[in-house]
Amino acid sequence: MYILYNPQGNTEGHSQQYATNIVNGLINAGFNVEMVTSQDFDPSGVNNSSRFKVRHTEIADTRSVTKNDSGFIGRLAYGTLILKNNFKSFRALIKSIKENEFLHLSIIGGDTLSNLMFLFFSFRLDKSKCSITIHNADYDLELYRHDFARYVFKLVSKLLLKSLVRGRLVVFTHGEIMSKVLAEQLGCSNERIDFYRVPAARSKSSFIVKKPVNNPVRLLFLGVIRYDKGLDILCSCLSEIKSTTQFELIIAGSPIQVGKTYVYSLIEQFNLADRTRLELRYLSDSEVEDFIIEADITVLPYRKTFIAKSVVMSDTARLGTPAIATIGSQNGFDVNEFDVGWPFISENHHDLVRIIKLAIDEVLEGNSNFGFSSYIEEHLPSSVGAKIKSVMENSSAK
Prior knowledge:
By secondary structure, the chain is of the alpha/beta class. It has helices at 15-28, 72-99, 112-121, 148-165, 176-186, 231-241, 260-269, 285-294, 311-318, 330-338, 349-365, 372-379, 381-397; strands at residues 2-6, 33-38, 52-57, 104-107, 130-133, 170-173, 193-195, 217-222, 247-252, 276-279, 297-299, 323-327, 341-345. The strands form 2 sheets. It has a 7-stranded parallel beta sheet, sandwiched between helices. Strand 6 (170-173), helix 5 (176-186) and strand 7 form a beta-alpha-beta unit.
């Protein structure tokens, strides 16, 4: 039995799709899988239900609380709910561990600090059978010198992770850049951090048939809206080129972590109301696909703290829409590696303006040939499942 711990289930972001694809990859690799997850996880996307079990946690929906990064009370309320959820869901995980003679345990979701504490204090677990996925290599403490709460959170997380990598715990990220950066931050060798790609199932929509370009060009900002995703940076850049460049900005995703007022204020501040379409709500997987397919360019203007690989990046590439992403992140690395868009320097206003204008021109001229086919082959659930199996089995054999 392979146990996957992903307590969020379908409560926020792309957790449902991400977890389902990993399950399918592991089943394809020959495992029976039990997932510890929330009540609203939809198992219908699992390809072989006879080899899959769900053990439900009883947690609150994180969408019930708005995270306000600018307010201490809002952040405290959101953080308290996340911690409470994780510690409650560990009860279900412990039951799964006790009741199953498991081959491997992978923690792929949930609050990182809580997960690290669980692994650190689980002295009876054979760590060579366990793994944790670090979703963002953001342990450079200099980034948090002006935010005491985040500084403490990251400091404690970093100390726990540094301790765990000295043992036999398998640590995964989502790509080469993330693994390299995380190893540097933890002061360990690059070989100590493994990675697997963010899995992306092959789409029924074919990007081999080139879709027509919209005029004005549609720029898409997609997914759960957070401060580190740089919506304010994008709006500032677009306000500069508004008078000389035709575009439509689509902002689609839940604003639960920042609040709708934050988004409305940005649109008003940068005078973009006449160029912007808002869909500020949680989106189903099919709606996410629809937004990407109808867009011409997906823009990921993320801040320097976002070193990660986003599911939005995987989705936009597998559906044949090129992306603008940040150099130094896994998103930007993959844009270059697979030739599926344009990289820019994170938090560099002038460079993002330049790249947006370049991307719009190239899309309108139809001169770009993107490497979507090679990208999707590397990110198929079967490829990801095989990679995880290889790493975990080699770790257990040591």
